[in-house]
Design brief:
Elements (H helix, E strand, L loop, with lengths): L24 H14 L7 E7 L5 E7 L2 E2 L4 E6 L3 H8 L2 E8 L4 E11 L2 H8 L4 H9 L9 H14 L10 E15 L7 E7 L5 E6 L2
Antiparallel strand pairs: 1-2, 1-5, 3-4, 4-7, 5-6, 6-7, 7-8, 8-9
EC number: 1.4.3.5
Pfam family, one: PNPOx_N
Enzyme class: oxidoreductase
């Protein structure tokens, strides 16, 4: 009988050397993300968001990347959710992207701040109407007695105004400004390629190879 300890596979898709990396980690990230999107990978833009509140207990969940530029990574959710509360207590987080088909992952640590109310409102109303009603009806991460009770809230909002819903005041976006990146490429025999980007005192990104 095969046990969990016996479960393994080899990583042989590709290799990664320092001279292959762009000197700008945002550009390197864009290249890997575009590669995943062009390959039509399912959930190419999803990421694990790890946070910790004042108690120091780590927490993680999958969220969707909704905006990415030369300075930050953005997503949206309820400020009253568990992750929203943790970010308010400890405005730091880690993002993890993993593309299984390319045997690649990117880990990004940084500082977190809220996006503007205008940005949140614009994105909220760009979503499908059903998603807007769901977000307005749900007190994310808070207990509820039943699925029916949640559906009743949605139905009431639709009954009140089937064509529009207001963005909840406690719903919005976050921006993570990176302080470190790590690019990981799986290799055979677990001798993986790992490179970090860290900022030096002059604000320049320094690339360092890590042992696997």
């Amino acid at each position: 009988m095969t046990t969990l300890a016996d479960t393994r596979r080899e990583y042989e898709h590709d290799s990664l050397s320092k001279n292959q990396l762009n000197e700008n980690p945002f550009t390197q990230m864009q290249q890997w993300l575009e590669q995943a999107q062009k390959a039509n990978l399912k959930d190419a833009t999803v990421m694990t968001l790890a946070t910790a509140g004042k108690d120091g207990m780590p927490d993680a969940r999958i969220v969707m990347l909704k905006q990415f530029d030369e300075s930050s990574f953005c997503w949206y959710n309820s400020y009253a959710s568990r992750k929203g509360q943790q970010i308010s207590e400890n405005p730091q987080a880690c993002l993890l992207f993993y593309w299984r088909e390319f045997e690649q992952q990117v880990r990004i640590q940084g500082k977190v701040e809220k996006l503007s109310a205008e940005e949140a409102d614009e994105y909220f109303h760009s979503r499908p109407l059903g998603s807007q009603f769901s977000a307005a009806a749900s007190q994310q991460s808070h207990p509820i007695s039943s699925r029916k009770a949640l559906q009743d809230r949605v139905d009431q909002l639709i009954q009140d105004n089937p064509d529009a819903v207001s963005k909840p005041d406690d719903w919005g976006g976050y921006r993570l400004t990176p302080v470190t990146f790590e690019f990981w490429q799986g290799r055979a025999s677990r001798l993986h390629d790992r490179f970090t980007y860290t900022l030096d005192e002059a604000g320049k990104w320094v690339i360092t190879r890590l042992q696997p």
